[in-house]
Amino acid sequence: MLDKLEKIEKEALKTLASVKDKANLEKWRLAKIGRHSPMMNMFSQMASLSKEERPAFGQGINRLKALLEKEFEDRRAHIKQAELEESLASEKLDISLPGRPVKMGRLHPSTQNLRRVLGILAEMGFQVYTARDVESDEYNFQLLNIPPHHPAREMQDTFYIDTGNNDESEKQVLRTHTSPGQVRAMREFSSQNPDNPPPIRIALPGMCYRFEQITARSEVQFNQVEGLVLGQTITFGDLKGTLSEFARRMFGSHVKTRFRSDHFPFTEPSAEMDIECYVCGGKGCSVCKKSGWLEILGCGMVHPSVLANGGYDPARYSGFAFGMGPERQLMLRHKISDIRYFWGNDIRFLEQF
After folding, report:
1. 83 lies in the same domain as 225
2. Both 258 and 151 in a single domain?
3. pLDDT of residue 143
4. pLDDT the model gives residue 29
5. How far, in Å, CA of 43 to CA of 58, rounded?
6. pLDDT at 152
7. What is the CATH number of the domain that holds 285?
8. What's the pLDDT tens digit per position in 199-215?
9. Are residues 25 and 119 in the same domain?
């Protein structure tokens, strides 16, 4: 039996020495160390040996298997090296050519526009204030003049978090807007001096979440930038002047703006702000739906009850707030028809920004 092993070894090594390419090497592997090779068939013959013969035969066949596998790996490495040397010798290689440029990463388009918005607001004296993504029902709704059973409270609009607490005010939600940060900021500032709270001029960026059907125009998550200005002599004229100046810096010095009456529970009066369509110049096109105007944000004077909830006396203080969506502005500016592109991670879309 040991003589058979020696014969298999010599024949296998002899044929391996003549193998010069990968195809024939694979054929050798199947024939010499594959499952149905003569060497592997020898394992089945151990049962016919006596107890005295089995140890020596077992050692011999294991040694042969390890040897052939090692020789196979060495030959494969040798063939690979030979092919590489042949390729280098046959191809022209100009080492003076510049290397291939490495593609650099970039900021997500939503992040780019978010930073642009915050940069403009910073130039106008706004400080960034960050608030939490998970809010209590009290801050997200009740302190903003949205009592229980208000339409905005319905389950199709809000992600509720099951904490096991049935207390209405203690229920936890993923914030549906950045407005809860207004009350948190007001309470933080007013706690510094309850009798004479300081004025506020802040921008509140963040992700918002709404339990809605995902379509080309709506997503379950989106960025929003909230603005809040409080003081003792703030008027609606200040609101119009601030937002008109923001629009000029954001969309160009010659942009035209208009304000339309609207309603938000936490502001009174409330308005929507439009800019003249920069695609058609106000003549009417598919982007502005033939109206000549594009809606960019909602705004209004802070409701007296919201001021009081934040620790500011509405008899002494007034202010305005506004909210805008960076993704919506990008959709308008670049004629993007589907908001789902922003979160689809399609590199073809992202590389355009």
Report:
1. no
2. yes
3. 93
4. 86
5. 8
6. 66
7. 3.30.930.10
8. 999 999 999 998 888 88
9. no
Looking at this protein, which amino acid is placed at residue 60?
A: G
Whether residue 117 sits in one domain with residue 62: no
- Same domain, residue pair 84 and 166: no
For the chain, the first-to-last Cα distance in angstroms comes to 73
256 shares a domain with 123: yes
Residue 31 contacts residue 25 (beta carbons within 8 Å):
no
Dist. CA 135–CA 16, nearest whole Å: 71
What pTM does this model have? Answer: 0.67
Closest listed residue to residue 235, CA positions, set 155, 123, 320, 129: 320
pLDDT of residue 269: 94
| Separation of alpha carbons 307 and 266, rounded Å | 9
Q: Where does a domain end: 90, 125, 140?
A: 90
Residue-number span of the structural domain to which 148 is assigned: 109-350
Instruction: Please check whether residues 9 and 113 belong to one and the same domain.
Output: no
Contact call for residues 162 and 182 (beta carbons, < 8 A): no
Residue 203 lies in a domain: yes
Paired tokens of 96: 């003076």
User: What's the total number of domains in the chain?
Assistant: 2
299-323 pLDDT, tens digit per residue, is 999 999 999 999 999 999 999 999 9
Q: Would you say 171 and 163 are in contact if contact means Cβ atoms under 8 Å apart?
A: yes
**Which residues of the chain carry a pLDDT beneath 50?**
none
| Confidence (pLDDT) at 193 | 92
Q: How many CB atoms sit inside 10 A of residue 288's CB? A: 21
